Every structure is written in structure tokens, then in C-alpha cells.
Amino acid sequence: MAGDVEYPSRVMCPLIDEMLSAGDCVAVTDITDGFIKERVLQDRFKEKENWREICEHCENRKYADDEA
Ligand code: SF4
Predict the structure, then answer these.
(1) How many domains does the chain have?
(2) In-domain check, residue 54
(3) CB within 10 Å: which end of the chain, N or C, has fewer?
(4) Range of 46's domain?
């Protein structure tokens, strides 16, 4: 079923400056939002000091939120 937003299979993640699968992006946003414990998040996503704010304001969230 087609939605309003085309859902890419991979997105450029500013936390790691690499392409990330859309599924992993959704998982990281669940951690950022507090639904999953932060300690399961790989350290590479937390290397930037303000990683949580970066993720909270990331434009790729529109894809993750669209799936909710
Ligand atoms: S929403 Fe978060 S996990 Fe997804 S690409 Fe952006 S910074 Fe990375």
C-alpha cells in the first residue's frame, strides 16, 4: 500500500555519517525516544556529544514516524 511518503530502504544517518538501513533507523529512534533502553545502542551512534538532539531533529524521522 502506497503512503504519502516514499519510504527509502537506506538513509544517511548524521550520527554516524554513514548510510543506515531504514529498519535500523527506526530502532535508533525508538531508543532516542526512550522506548528501548539506551544501553543497547551501539557506541558508534553515541560518539557525538549531542547525539540524542541530532536524532530528535533529524529529517529522516519523517520516515520513522510515518511507520508508527
Ligand atoms: S532519525 Fe536518528 S537514527 Fe535515523 S537517520 Fe536520523 S539520526 Fe540516524
Answers:
(1) 1
(2) yes
(3) N
(4) 10-67
Give the Cα-Cα-Cα angle 6, 17, 30 (nearest 5 degrees): 60
Q: Residue 1: inside a domain, yes or no?
A: no
Ligand 1 nearest atom to the CA of residue 59, by list position: 6
Q: How confident is the model at residue 3 (pLDDT cuts 50, 70, 90)?
A: low
Ligand 1, atom 7: closest residue by C-alpha: 55
Grid cell in block for residue 54: 541530532
pTM attached to this predicted model: 0.85
Is 5 part of any domain?
A: no
